[in-house]
Design brief:
The protein is of the alpha+beta class. The chain has two domains: 122 residues, no CATH class; 92 residues, no CATH class. It contains six helices and eight strands. The strands form three sheets. Strands 4-3-5 form a three-stranded antiparallel β-sheet, covered by helices on one side. Strand 3 and strand 4 form a beta hairpin.
Length: 231
């Protein structure tokens, strides 16, 4: 049986469940962590209430209090399992492991009725139109000269000769988005909005102003190329 469901995010999700296990439709409003096609298995239990009876997805934490969540087959169905880690769904990709877990939980809770459900989901997200234009790139240069560090140490009662101080220290020359305030304040961290091109590892203790200026020119050329292509 092929149940095609349209969720609130306007993304289609196709769910395939064998006729022998289907009782009611599965509505989906939750997005997967990433696009793709996935098949996984989940445990349901039969819930008998005063007014209705239905199959629902099991609260495994309730039924598996005496199980070790770090050991399969239970492990695969928890938040440390591959399915949750990859797509954000509690379930298991492996049928053999799932059947073993169904047997285990059924024997552990003989007064409850369980079943295994196979779910097949395809999610595809397409950008129809993007209104927010990304901020432009700029060059940012950070470093401390030998004179600046000597002055700092002396003012704080420390002998600068105790430290290995080069001509340029704590160097970071990067291209960064103009609106990346956090990246501008941080040191040593690359991100999608901050690309570090040069740091202390590129400079020896005898580096000169000419070396620093050359690095800035390289960064400026890279920055201009990014802005030109609107990347």
């Amino acid at each position: 049986m092929n149940l095609k469901i349209r969720d609130s995010s306007m993304v289609y999700a196709d769910t395939y469940i064998s006729i022998s296990t289907i009782i009611d439709n599965i509505g989906r409003t939750k997005m997967l962590r990433k696009d793709g096609t996935y098949t996984f298995y989940r445990i349901q239990h039969f819930q008998k209430g005063e007014k209705d009876e239905k199959w629902v997805y099991s609260d495994l934490g309730f039924f598996c209090k005496n199980f070790d969540f770090k050991v399969d087959p239970y492990r695969s169905f928890t938040a440390i399992g591959e399915c949750w880690q990859e797509i954000g769904e509690y379930g298991c990709y492996d049928l053999s492991n799932s059947l073993q877990f169904l047997k285990q939980i059924s024997e552990s809770c003989p007064n409850s009725q369980f079943r295994l459900v196979k779910i097949h989901i395809t999610q595809a997200t397409n950008v129809e139109k993007e209104y927010m234009k990304k901020a432009r790139w700029k060059v940012e240069s950070k470093y401390e000269t030998k004179e600046e560090l000597y002055k700092f140490y002396k003012e704080n009662g420390t002998d600068p000769e105790d430290f290995d101080i080069g001509e340029f220290n704590n160097v970071e020359i990067s291209v960064i988005r103009e609106n990346d305030k956090l990246g501008s304040k941080s040191y040593g961290w690359n991100s999608m909005d901050k690309i570090i091109l040069f740091n202390d590892s590129n400079f020896n203790p005898e580096a000169t102003n000419k070396d620093i200026e050359w690095c800035k020119q390289v960064a400026e050329a890279f920055c201009n190329a990014l802005n030109e292509k609107e990347l």
